[in-house]
Design goal:
244 residues, binds adenosine-5'-diphosphate, 9 helices, alpha/beta, binds magnesium ion, four-stranded antiparallel β-sheet
Length: 244
């Protein structure tokens, strides 16, 4: 079966800087893949290429068997890829519901339909009681959740989450983990960029590790946690599994 997402030799250069070099991986339908690595490793750049914000310098991105590299963000979103931003990009002066409507209008041109879809997404992420509040009044955790809600309202097949657990309390991280699980249970595949290992290790089917633009490991979380190259590049000894 064709994987949902096939990334092949993805390369992105900014002038003399190679942010991604020959990055290849696949994501299956309904799979959760963790994407980790040190700051500056190129994780967000992968997302920007996947979501149509950057045209890759080289390589191919196939989504549901179709080449999407170089397509504009709206076209990629229409095909079923949604993303959140590391630095949240919500409209703070608009209400929570209006922010989610921006996503829902992608597939529902009739406003009442889009509103219904947005409310359903808000119920799913637990933000419904905040629907009428200005988005700028939300807590950090709620703002991150709002971005996820807006992305879900576009009815994606693949969701790209960029550090949605950063800056959250331990309890909020657990809520976020639960939410990602429920998203996957809806059949939506997720690629999750995360530094919070407690947030990603327990739910990932696969972990992808970037270092200086290159993919240095790709495997199940337990194997990744014990991979000497990954420990040296990023994890340190802390995540080595007991007895390994
Ligand atoms: N739009 C851009 N223009 C120039 N350089 C960029 C741009 N975006 C990212 N970079 C550079 O690419 C490298 C990877 O960045 P990024 O993908 O944001 O890393 P990560 O998300 O893993 O921290 C960094 O050196 C960063 O400065
Ligand atoms: Mg980043």
């Amino acid at each position: 079966m064709t994987p949902l997402l096939e990334v092949e030799r993805l390369t992105k250069r900014f002038g003399g800087l190679t942010a991604n070099e020959d990055v290849s991986f696949t994501v299956g339908e309904g799979e959760i893949a963790g994407l980790i690595g040190p700051n500056g490793a190129g994780k967000t750049t992968v997302f920007n290429s996947l979501a149509g914000f950057f045209a890759p310098s080289a390589g191919s991105i196939r989504f549901r068997g179709e080449e999407i590299a170089g397509l504009p963000p709206e076209a990629v979103a229409a095909r079923g890829v949604a993303r959140t931003f590391q630095i949240v990009r919500i409209f703070k002066g608009m209400t929570v519901l209006e922010n989610v409507l921006v996503g829902a209008l992608l597939r529902h041109r009739a406003v009442p339909d889009a509103v219904a879809r947005a409310r359903e997404a808000l119920r799913f992420t637990g933000l419904e009681r905040r629907a009428a509040d200005p988005a700028g009044r939300l807590t950090v955790a709620e703002q991150k959740r709002l971005e996820v809600t807006r992305a879900l309202a576009t009815e994606p097949r693949l969701l790209l989450l960029d550090e949605v657990m950063a800056g959250l309390t331990a309890a909020e991280v657990q809520d976020a983990v639960e939410m990602v699980r429920r998203i996957r249970d809806r059949g939506i595949a997720c690629v999750v960029v995360e530094h919070v290992m407690e947030g990603i290790m327990p739910i990932a089917d696969r972990m992808l590790v970037l270092e200086r633009g290159r993919l240095i490991a790709d495997g199940p979380p337990r194997a990744i946690a014990n991979d000497p190259a990954v420990i040296a590049a990023y994890l340190g000894e802390e995540y080595r599994a007991p007895g390994a």
